[in-house]
Design brief:
mainly alpha
Length: 98
C-alpha cells in the first residue's frame, strides 16, 4: 500500500484508468463478436455495419494508447478480410493468411 500522499493519489488514478481501459476493451470485443455472429449467419449488411463500429472504437482506443496501434490495425485488417470473403461468396475458414 502506498504511504505518501502522491503515491495514494497515483493509486486512485491507476484504478480509475484501469476500469476505463477494461470497459473500452470489452466494448471492442463485444462488437467484434457481433461482426463474427453476423458473418456466420450470412448477414453481410449487418456485419459491415458492426465492422464500422469496431473500426471506430479500435482507432479511438489506439489513439488514446489503450490498445497498441498495431493491434488495432491488425484487428481491422483481419476482420475486413473476413467480411470481404463472405461478401464475395467464399467462406473464410479460420484466420485469413496474409
Amino acid at each position: 500500500m502506498p504511504h505518501s500522499v502522491s503515491a495514494k493519489k497515483r493509486l486512485r488514478q491507476n484504478l480509475r484508468a484501469r476500469e476505463r481501459n477494461r470497459a473500452i476493451k470489452s466494448e471492442i470485443k463485444s462488437e467484434l463478436k457481433k461482426v463474427l455472429e453476423a458473418l456466420t449467419s450470412g448477414d453481410v449488411a449487418a456485419a459491415r455495419e458492426h465492422f464500422k463500429v469496431v473500426a471506430r472504437k479500435a482507432d479511438r482506443a489506439a489513439a488514446k494508447r489503450t490498445i497498441h496501434p498495431n493491434r488495432a490495425a491488425r484487428l481491422k485488417s483481419r476482420l475486413s478480410a473476413r467480411v470481404k470473403a463472405v461478401a464475395g461468396g467464399t467462406a473464410a475458414k479460420g484466420k485469413p493468411k496474409s
